[in-house]
Amino acid sequence: MSDDTVVVWDESLLAYDLGDHPLDPVRVELTIALARELGILQRPGVRLVKPAPADDALLTRVHDPRYLDAVRIAPRDPLFAGFGLGTSDNPVFDGMHESSALVAGASVTAAEAVWRGAARRAVNVAGGLHHAMPARAAGFCVYNDPAVAIARLLDLGAERIAYVDVDVHHGDGVQQIFWNDPRVLTVSLHETPLALFPGTGFPDETGGPDAVGSAVNVPLPPGVADAGWQRAFHAIVPSVLRAFRPQILFTQCGADAHRVDPLADLHLSVDGQRATYLAFRALADELCDGRWVATGGGGYALVEVVPRAWTHLLAVATGAPLDPATLTPPAWRELAAARRPGFDVPLRMTDDVDPGYEPWQPTGEPDLVDRAIAATRKAVFPLLGLDPHDPRD
Predict the structure, then answer these.
(1) What residue ranges are annotated as transmembrane (predicted)?
(2) 2: pLDDT confidence band, cut at 50, 70 and 90?
(3) How high is the pLDDT of residue 306?
(4) Do 276 and 227 contact (CB within 8 A), yes or no?
């Protein structure tokens, strides 16, 4: 296996543009620009690869052919309605099929590079559209690129794929698509569905009748900051991954759990997000011989957060992590200010937060995070042969 890292990128990925909408492609443009200015994309062993669009054969591994027809037709029909399209969340836009298929193709390119051994790790920051359903657009997502890429890995012979989603919103589309497939473990940490879209992701959602224990959900209360979030992550994710023994790790790294994100209510820092990426790499190294595919996802603090978070992701995936105290380059600050006048442009790659945490213990007076941890462990750990009360599991 090559020790290279593939970064799937082409400016044409910015065409996934829903117009005057929170999911603004400027966040991806500024991520790539920041990573380039900091020299991350020029590191030895980093290969930029242009994506090809996913064809219908790939897309219909996940999506209904009638839905593909609707995505193609909708921009040409001013009276079109249905399939979740034409809503405020998922407005119709020109080139919708082509740009959505390209995002899906980029994640497939990343997954194939890792599975075939052309790279140890691969990243598609434009991907992570995890809400799209087989026959319906949802949550800003037209085609579900993580699910399409995972389906491709299954077709290539993968038998155990772990998908871990740290977007602030539940990874509902990916969970539903693989709900009854024991070859795919879906894990999602998210703000409680009692408070946030899409209203799913409770601990008792543990997989279909042929795949009991293949879905793991960790809903967290509003206001959780780095220490609580990291405690929940480390109390659940390493254990279920070790029990599942994945051949490849696929992560959705939405940045919208940050404290200043306008669409949600968790209080993470960029430093905490960086710590999660380091944990992902360590788990991939421990369990999958380093095989790790990462995508972006949500994130609506377009200048203040997303470019820094995903630049940290790219740094971790391509080699040495960035020192959090690193200054953002002046040229990038000028670009960000020009692209989004009036936005606060960060001067450093840190929020000056220590993302340390106290490990979970089943004793003492539990707070709301501990209750969430206990609920998830009670629901799913026995299904995976783990003891929900033993902190060593």
Answers:
(1) none
(2) confident
(3) 98
(4) no
